[in-house]
Specification:
171 residues; alpha+beta; HSP40/DNAj peptide-binding domain; 4-stranded mixed beta sheet; 8 strands; elongated
Length: 171
């Protein structure tokens, strides 16, 4: 029995208080992995050493990128002319940098391209995943008369039947 208990701990020997701790999250950490901070846990009983603090990581979903293991996936919109003629496009990477990638002519909607070594790092061996993007060809919704005429000429050279614009009641 403690004859004169301290007013803060009331004789327990410990005081609960909120503590701020800075935690360095290593790059490449994945969902449900745990970080252990030695000696940052609860105080030990009867003056013993502090325990360890275990932090389980939960990743927030990103609006553009998805992740599977160390690989990063996303969709990149390209124009009809870029897909047809080929183009150099800038791809935004996860780390904020940009990579220039050459899209070959005749690229179809949904084609997957891989940039090796631009994914997340593996925590254990330092190897790096890949960045995989899928092309999403954007078809223009409205065309000017000049653009429409040019496309109709193209369709004729490709032995396609261009669509016939039907006249309505008013014109």
């Amino acid at each position: 029995m403690i004859p004169e208990p301290c007013p803060e701990c009331k004789g327990k020997g410990t005081v609960r208080k909120a503590v701020r701790i800075s935690v360095k999250i290593p790059s490449g950490i994945d969902e449900n992995q745990t970080i252990v901070l030695r000696g940052e846990g609860e105080p030990g009983e009867k003056g013993g050493t502090k325990g360890d603090l275990y932090i389980t990581v939960h990743l927030k979903r990103h609006s553009i990128y998805t992740r599977k293991g160390q690989d990063v996936f996303c969709e990149i919109p390209i124009t009809f002319t870029q897909a047809t003629l080929g183009a150099d496009i800038e791809i935004p990477m996860v780390d904020g940098s940009k990579e220039t990638y050459r899209i070959p002519e005749g690229t179809q909607n949904g084609t997957k391209f891989t940039i090796r070594g631009k994914g997340f790092k593996n925590l254990n061996n330092g190897s790096q995943g890949n960045f995989v993007f899928t092309t999403e060809v954007q078809i223009p919704r409205k065309l000017s008369k000049e653009q429409r005429d040019i496309l109709m000429q193209l369709a004729k050279t490709m032995n396609e039947q261009p669509p016939i614009k039907k006249k309505g009641i008013f014109g």
